[in-house]
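Below is a filled-in request sheet from our internal design queue. Each sheet records the structural input a requester submitted and the sequence that came back. We keep these sheets so that new team members can see what a complete request looks like end to end.

REQUESTER: design group, bay 2
PRIORITY: normal
MODE: inverse folding
CHAIN LENGTH: 286
BACKBONE (tokenized):
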């Protein structure tokens, strides 16, 4: 798909992204945090939308420096919208990107017309981080587990590297899918920033402890949670988070993992159509 490049300038450095397609605007927020932007994987699901995706802070061509806080990530998203002249848009977030979408909607309700949250980090407790980590480990074959133990030791040591973090992701990757044995390989261009990952999750923990979940009761836009039935992220996290939001619904995708569009093509497109219908009105951005 043809893409146009843009740069959003912020006080803390540039945020680089791409725009493709035509139709109502759709902001895509990738997971991680501090991973390469992979949201072009979802282009088959976003046909009929003007899709905006960008590399989040931490990796080139965007700024590689922090601060890696929730507030800074939200400000970067707003800077992208401002740069493209988007007053209000539907937001599609996956994993950590779903949590970022919730934060954006809570702090800038005038900029968000609707939400599609695909297997997101939740807003209850630790968001599902510990359970997800355990489920991923349980899905790992013995040989990979032995290697993972060595990588985890390096990550816990005095001099962990981005290469260690990427190897950890590579070992965990099959467990994100409903059937790890048939999982696709990690995208060849995937990179990660250990600093960005750790500092962002530290900021998430602070928000969780301060009662962020209570703010979701004020999010009044139509929202669809698309949850993989066999995802390592507990379905209960999405369900509990959705229950906090007055206009949210849950779609459980059977036989699907953390990237549910992989096993059940069309599940995200269907959620987007639901939001298109419910968000249309005199204040819609399109």
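RETURNED SEQUENCE:
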């Amino acid at each position: 798909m043809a893409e146009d490049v843009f740069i959003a300038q912020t006080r803390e450095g540039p945020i680089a992204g791409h725009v493709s397609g035509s139709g109502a605007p759709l902001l895509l927020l990738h997971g991680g945090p501090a991973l390469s932007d992979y949201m072009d994987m979802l282009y088959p699901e976003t046909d009929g939308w003007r899709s905006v995706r960008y590399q989040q802070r931490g990796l080139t061509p965007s700024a590689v420096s922090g601060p890696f806080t929730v507030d800074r990530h939200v400000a970067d998203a707003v800077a992208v919208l401002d740069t493209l002249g988007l007053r209000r848009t539907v937001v599609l977030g996956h994993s950590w990107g779903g949590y970022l979408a919730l934060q954006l909607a809570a702090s800038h309700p005038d900029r968000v017309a609707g939400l599609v949250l695909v297997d997101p980090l939740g807003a209850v407790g630790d968001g599902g981080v510990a359970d997800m980590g355990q489920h991923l480990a349980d899905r790992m074959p013995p040989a990979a587990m032995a290697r993972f133990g060595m990588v985890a030791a390096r990550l816990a040591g005095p001099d962990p590297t981005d290469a260690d973090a990427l190897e950890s992701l590579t070992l965990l990757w099959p467990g994100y899918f409903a059937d790890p044995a048939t999982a696709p390989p990690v995208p060849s261009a995937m990179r990660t920033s250990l600093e960005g990952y750790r500092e962002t999750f530290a900021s998430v923990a602070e928000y969780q402890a301060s009662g962020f979940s209570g703010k979701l009761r004020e999010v009044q836009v139509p929202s669809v949670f698309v949850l993989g039935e066999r995802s390592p992220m507990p379905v209960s996290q999405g369900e509990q988070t959705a229950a906090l939001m007055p206009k949210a619904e849950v779609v459980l995708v059977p036989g699907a993992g953390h990237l549910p569009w992989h096993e059940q093509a069309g599940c995200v497109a269907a959620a987007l159509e639901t939001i298109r219908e419910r968000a249309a009105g005199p204040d819609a951005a399109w």
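SHEET NOTES:
- The chain has a mean pLDDT of 96.
- The radius of gyration is 18 Å.
FILED BY: M.R.
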